[in-house]
């Protein structure tokens, strides 16, 4: 396990039986995110075969644009190295929407699901069900082979984002 703590900010990279468990917390700077990206590259260098990623961001504060760009780069790195599915656990709707947009922009939304832990008591089980068994937490049923909910998810996300923008 690799873990770095900077004041109250933290990131951890842990290998698991399904792949990786990542934890982020605090208000992370672009420099800290760059450190995570570099260490992720080192961890992924000897990764063999497909894997899944469980990301716990419940205590992560909003990222600036540099931090968001580094997260996007990291998402693409994990995908290139064999990531089949990932789940991101967040703890507020604004951060959840921010990360959904990052995934759409980085092209991995088909493989990544987002769970707002403030709205779900069973967030850990729902996340593991997605990455291990393909049970989509947005649909609560097993995803049929070859099915992609990305267009439905993008449409719902854009509607929510437009509503959010109009309510400001």
Draw up the topology in text:
Elements: E1 2-6, E2 9-15, E3 19-26, H1 30-44, E4 51-60, H2 65-80, E5 83-90, H3 93-106, E6 112-116, H4 123-133, E7 135-136, E8 141-142, H5 150-166
How is this structure best described in words?
This protein is of the alpha/beta class. The protein has one domain: STAS domain (Transcription Regulator spoIIAA, 2-Layer Sandwich), CATH 3.30.750. The protein contains five helices and eight strands. The protein has helices at residues 30-44, 65-80, 93-106, 123-133, 150-166; strands spanning 2-6, 9-15, 19-26, 51-60, 83-90, 112-116, 135-136, 141-142. Helix 1 runs parallel beside helix 2 and helix 2 packs across helix 3 (93-106). Mean pLDDT is 81; it is low at 141-151.
Which labels suit this protein?
Transcription Regulator spoIIAA, alpha/beta, two-stranded antiparallel ribbon, about 170 residues, about 30% strand, six-stranded mixed beta sheet
Secondary structure tally: strands: 8
Strand order of the biggest β-sheet: 1-2-3-4-5-6
Reported CATH architecture: 2-Layer Sandwich
The biggest sheet, with number of strands, parallel, antiparallel or mixed sense and barrel status, is:
6 strands, mixed
Query: How helical, in percent, are the residues?
Result: 40-55%
Relevant CATH superfamily: STAS domain
Helix and strand content put the structural class at alpha/beta
Distance between the termini: 42 Å
* Domain count: 1
Extract low-pLDDT stretches. Answer: 141-151
Q: What string, H for helix and E for strand, traces the elements in order?
A: EEEHEHEHEHEEH
Question: What oligomeric arrangement do these chains adopt?
Answer: single chain
Beta-strand content bin = 25-35%
Look at the structure and give the CATH class.
Alpha Beta
- Give the overall pLDDT as a whole number: 81
Task: Tell me the number of helical segments per DSSP (H or I, 4 or more residues long).
Answer: 5
CATH topology: Transcription Regulator spoIIAA
Structural shape: globular
Task: Compute the CA-based radius of gyration.
Answer: 15 Å
């Amino acid at each position: 396990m690799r873990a770095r703590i900077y004041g109250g900010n933290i990131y951890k990279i842990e290998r698991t039986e399904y792949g990786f468990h990542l934890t982020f917390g605090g208000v992370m700077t672009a420099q800290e995110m760059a450190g995570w990206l570099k260490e992720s590259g080192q961890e992924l260098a000897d990764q063999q075969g497909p894997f899944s990623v469980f990301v716990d961001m419940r205590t992560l504060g909003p990222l600036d644009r540099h931090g968001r760009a580094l997260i996007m780069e990291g998402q693409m790195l994990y995908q290139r190295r064999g990531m089949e599915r990932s789940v991101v656990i967040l703890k507020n709707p604004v951060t959840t929407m921010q990360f959904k947009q990052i995934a759409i922009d980085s092209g991995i939304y088909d493989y990544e699901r987002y769970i707002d832990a403030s709205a779900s008591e069973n967030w850990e089980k729902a996340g593991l069900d997605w990455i291990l068994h393909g049970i989509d937490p947005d649909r609560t049923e097993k995803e049929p082979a070859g099915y992609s909910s990305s267009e439905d998810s993008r449409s719902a996300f854009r509607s929510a984002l437009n509503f959010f923008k109009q309510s400001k």
